[in-house]
């Protein structure tokens, strides 16, 4: 009947999981999700999706959804009206601001919420409270890559599109489990490798699917990939296989950089990294023969003490060999969450206003003051990684979290939980009762992407609209509405934003990087890749004629490695961690999708055949892994993906198996990103059946 037909709706949306940013149509009937239908119009993925994008939506109808504001009394939460919750929030925030000042607040934006929501949260922090203490998840993952790229070539994002990357004749991945973490991106790499003869070099300590497919698998000792890149770079220089013309015309600091490579001989590099000399020579030859090389990297690089240095080394290698500014070339740090790029682009960073503008720049501050009507704080704010310390020192009294499970994802989760229980007041906007929300004083029930409109930015700097497929679940509100209502209750002088497009208009007015971004230019499958000029011209491929640096020239920068930490000898095992294809990060969404939970219900730790022999381990045997900061209990899975004393624990594991119970306190020297990939432990065998 027509009645029934009219309830069936087709809506363009963008995947809510990884940073590839696949887009597709989703068919719904009221709240029921009928199917996901990819289309050739989708700019990044075309008709491809992975299991998460295709089947990962059922969480929106989970009985676990929060449907009423909750207020804590003692150990329990009570349902409250929105008005009651807002009044309490306003009262407490005002009192804390009066007593301790604006820098006693910290705001954490969601890397899953929209750009407009990230913008409003940082506006709440800076304009209403008056602090730069605002951050997002990127401190946990890709800030080192951003640092490396900003220092060398200028923009902290992928230097081209997935289509530019496909034109490479050599693709190198470093510390990226691409097939499981960025499945559709991996499909493109595999297709190029198989059908077009694109060469593939995979640098990873673990022999995952991509390593198995690679023409050359390069296996460094943990934490030494940066050293290897320098060794490789030196060999290229020595052979005369660098692009002298490109360097002369477009790059500064060449001689100093080349000089700094002197210690990294083939012998030294082999000794430090465990990578045979012949492998380094082979890869150098492949780079020499390639007309265009792209390098992809991810958390295996960035979540190390030397994450920033290694990212610099990668970008430097691309510069040395003239691999920027042409199709097939460039650096691609693959972003984890669907909108971790956008949360930073739209200003949820303690040292950046929207569009990476410097809050200490007077001209920038004047521009914001004109539109916002208040002074913008100058000082650099607190980041996520510093948060626990700042709370424990009594400097941060209030925490405002939008859609992040900080208590679970932060390294050294035990310490984080101690800190949270010392806060005077905490507000969480969430769709589920998470570990973090359990510490809140007020929880505000939010609506996920299918229930609202907005935009996301994917790993290609591509801004994409998503449309409302269904009404917000009864009792919930979109974050951009909640944030406005909180601001109103705090007496803020904000315009009334009736639609996210009006928020975007304000961003465009304030932000040169996004000057030409407008909703009507993003209709349907139309997208814009920043920077976007005022006339709407966007920039899929960066650095064609100039780098985004003073004078238009890239900058080669020498590095200083600190090396992995030296823990006591009893911690004789190295624990790597990463994604499983079927689950996403901490699993708050994917564990609520029945089909997906059944595919991979259990946590496990991968151990090598050698270690199994040495310790007499069997599949399924329970072990405890004890690190300097905590322990996890997990069953063993024997595999040849890992070797020797290197173990692999998926980051999606839950409860007693959660990886962050054992990760340490090491951080990247430049960005404070936790060195998650550096965990060491010893093993106790719990059952010996
Ligand atoms: Fe979603 Fe990433 Fe899978 Fe694409 S590859 S469908 S964006 S999880």
TrEMBL record:
GO terms for biological process: formate metabolic process; respiratory electron transport chain. The keyword ATP-binding does not apply. One of its GO terms (cellular component) is membrane. The keyword Signal does not apply. In the C-terminal section; belongs to the prokaryotic molybdopterin-containing oxidoreductase family. GO terms for molecular function: 2 iron, 2 sulfur cluster binding; 4 iron, 4 sulfur cluster binding; formate dehydrogenase (NAD+) activity; metal ion binding; molybdopterin cofactor binding; NADH dehydrogenase activity. It comes from the Bacteria. Keywords: 2Fe-2S, 4Fe-4S, Iron, Iron-sulfur, Metal-binding, Molybdenum, Oxidoreductase, Repeat. Its cofactor is Mo-bis(molybdopterin guanine dinucleotide); [4Fe-4S] cluster. Residues 8-64 form the 4Fe-4S Mo/W bis-MGD-type domain. The chain holds residues 253 to 941 of 999 of the full protein. The lineage of its organism: Bacteria, Bacillati, Bacillota, Clostridia, Eubacteriales. This is Formate dehydrogenase major subunit.
């Amino acid at each position: 009947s027509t009645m029934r037909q009219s309830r069936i709706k087709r809506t363009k949306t963008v995947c809510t999981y990884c940073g590839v940013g696949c887009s597709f149509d989703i068919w719904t009937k009221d709240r029921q999700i009928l199917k996901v239908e990819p289309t050739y119009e989708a700019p990044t993925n075309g008709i491809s999706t992975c299991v998460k994008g295709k089947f990962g939506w059922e969480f929106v109808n989970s009985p676990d959804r929060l449907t009423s504001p909750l207020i804590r009394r003692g150990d329990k939460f009570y349902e409250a009206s929105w008005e009651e919750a807002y009044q309490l929030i306003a009262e407490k925030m005002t009192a804390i601001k009066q007593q301790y000042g604006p820098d006693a607040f910290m705001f954490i934006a969601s890397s899953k919420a929209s750009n407009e929501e990230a913008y409003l949260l940082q506006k709440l922090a800076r304009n209403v409270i008056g602090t730069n203490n605002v951050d997002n998840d990127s401190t946990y993952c890709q800030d080192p890559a951003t640092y490396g790229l900003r220092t060398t070539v200028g923009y902290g994002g992928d230097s081209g599109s997935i289509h530019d990357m496909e034109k490479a004749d050599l693709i190198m991945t470093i510390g990226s489990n691409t097939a499981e973490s960025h499945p559709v991106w991996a499909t493109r790499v595999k297709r190029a490798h198989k059908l077009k003869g694109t060469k593939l070099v995979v640098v990873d300590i673990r022999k995952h699917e991509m390593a198995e497919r690679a023409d050359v698998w390069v296996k460094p000792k943990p934490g030494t990939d940066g050293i290897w890149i320098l060794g490789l770079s030196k060999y290229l220089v020595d052979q005369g296989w660098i692009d002298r013309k490109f360097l002369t015309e477009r790059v500064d600091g060449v001689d100093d950089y080349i000089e700094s490579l002197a210690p990294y001989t083939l012998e030294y590099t082999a000794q430090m990294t465990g990578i045979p000399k012949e492998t380094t020579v082979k890869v150098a030859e492949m780079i020499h023969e390639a007309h265009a090389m792209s390098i992809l990297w991810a958390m295996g690089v960035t979540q190390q003490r030397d994450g920033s240095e290694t990212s610099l080394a990668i970008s430097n290698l691309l510069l040395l060999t003239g691999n920027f500014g042409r199709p097939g070339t460039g650096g691609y740090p693959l972003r984890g969450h669907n909108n971790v790029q956008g949360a930073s682009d739209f200003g949820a960073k303690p040292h950046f206003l929207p569009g990476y503008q410097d809050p200490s720049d007077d001209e920038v501050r004047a521009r914001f003051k004109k539109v916002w009507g208040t002074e913008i704080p100058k000082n650099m704010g607190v980041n996520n990684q510093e948060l626990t310390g700042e709370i424990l020192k009594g400097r941060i009294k209030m925490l405002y979290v939008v859609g992040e499970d900080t208590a679970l994802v932060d390294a050294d989760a035990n310490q984080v939980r101690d800190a949270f229980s010392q806060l005077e007041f905490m507000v969480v906007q969430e769709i589920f009762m998470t570990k973090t929300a359990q510490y809140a004083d007020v929880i505000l029930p939010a609506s996920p992407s299918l229930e609202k409109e907005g935009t996301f930015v994917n790993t290609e700097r591509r801004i994409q609209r998503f449309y409302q497929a269904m009404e917000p679940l009864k009792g919930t509100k979109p974050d951009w509405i909640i944030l406005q209502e909180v601001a109103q209750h705090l007496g803020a002088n904000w315009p009334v934003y009736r639609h996210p497009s009006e928020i975007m208009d304000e961003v465009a007015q304030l932000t040169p990087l996004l000057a030409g971004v407008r909703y009507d230019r993003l209709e349907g499958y139309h997208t814009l890749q920043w920077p976007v000029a005022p006339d709407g011209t966007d920039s899929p491929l960066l650095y064609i004629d100039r780098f985004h640096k003073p004078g238009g020239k890239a900058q080669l920068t020498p590095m200083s490695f600190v090396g992995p930490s030296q823990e006591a000898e009893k911690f004789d095992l190295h624990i790597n961690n990463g994604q499983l294809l079927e689950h996403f990060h901490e699993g708050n969404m994917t564990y609520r999708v029945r089909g997906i939970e059944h595919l991979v219900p259990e946590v496990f730790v991968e151990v090598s055949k050698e270690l199994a022999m040495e310790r007499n381990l069997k599949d399924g045997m329970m072990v405890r892994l004890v690190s300097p900061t905590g322990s996890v209990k997990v069953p063993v899975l024997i595999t040849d993906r890992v070797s020797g004393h290197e173990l692999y624990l998926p980051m999606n594991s839950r409860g007693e198996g959660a990886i962050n119970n054992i990760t340490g306190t090491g951080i990247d020297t430049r960005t404070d990103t936790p060195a998650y990939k550096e965990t060491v432990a010893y093993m106790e065998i719990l059952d010996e059946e």
